[in-house]
Prior knowledge:
Blueprint: H1 2-11, E1 15-17, E2 55-57, E3 61-62, H2 68-71, H3 80-89, E4 93-106, E5 117-131, E6 134-146, E7 152-167, E8 171-177, E9 180-185, E10 193-198, E11 204-215, E12 218-223, E13 226-228, E14 243-253, E15 256-269, E16 272-291, H4 296-321, E17 324-326, H5 336-349, H6 355-369
Parallel strand pairs: 1-2
Antiparallel strand pairs: 2-6, 3-16, 4-5, 4-16, 5-6, 6-7, 7-10, 8-9, 9-17, 10-11, 11-12, 12-14, 13-14, 14-15, 15-16
Helix pairs in contact: 4-5, 4-6, 5-6
Amino acid sequence: MKTYLIVFLAFSLSFTFGEEEPAEKTKPEKAKSVGHPFSWGFMKWEQMKPYGGNTKGTETVLDTAQRANYSAIYEEGIRKKDQDRRAILSLAGNYRVTFDFIETAGTEENYKPQRPYFSWATERVFVISEAENFISLQHILVMEFIDKEGEAQGPFTMKHWRQDWRYEDQEQFQYQGDRNWKRVKTEVAAGSWTQEVYQVDDSPRYEATGHWTHKGGLSTFSTSNFWRPLPRREFSIRFDYNVLAGQHDITVNPTGWVHLQRNRKEVVENGVLTNTLATEIGAVRYEAITKPDLSLADTYWEKTAPYWHAVRKKWAEVYAENTAFALEKKIDDKGLFMHHFEHAGEIEAAENPNQEEFTQKARETIEKFLKK
């Protein structure tokens, strides 16, 4: 459990990567002025310094070669649906990930933008299930840090989020605000895909429907507008809104992919929008890497996959048996992810874990968090 908390707390802050020093160092000239942050031309940068810490990660080496799974998207003669599937499958890989968000407008009098957000991660994304109309991708964090003495700490491994893709999905569990989800029948658009995004503990987050386009060497998935819970970067510091609404684009490139977001911070009451506080834009960049070694993700998943399979199976039952549901925020003063991570940590440490026992723990944990 200690390892998971180290990674979780570290990931909640902001970080900068360690970079190689130039061969010759020269003393930089003193800056005459401080530049402005993106989209705020008359604000000083020191007023908009990204919030978070300044911990460094160990050196990363980018993989600059064009990936084979990117080239496969543009194979001549394949049908559009297969292009879509190959674009989704190309999201798998080893990545350095950066998270950048900045508010662009506000509706309150004397509005002042919140400081931008920056964070990073190194993680492996891999396929855990694949069928003609369904693909499931699991993200696993493998993090190394440089401490105050300049020593490397880690690597630390932790299950991250999951994304499931469904072709021409006929229904969704859409977020309603205040930890409530509701089943909604959807008008199926020909050729559409729905990206279902789940929390680190496999509880629901959001579902977004859109289409892939493949033109001129550019493959992009563009969604319609949708609602989701507050992001982890704000759920513990912002209490003035309860829904993040927005539209996303995911663009695949030869050495990774980019997730662009156009978001609105909204106040929703009983499923109805009452106020919009601010807008923001975000860019989450996945850059393929060859270093550090992320193979511990496979070791972690090999040991804990049966437990997380039981978690997903229980959630499938919840979706099948309910038209709507809500989740408690904490049980025994701990969030859902902490309970699940404790169980997964016990399995990881055990030589011969009792899978039946942990399957029961997975089911009972989710039952406790479902509001009666």
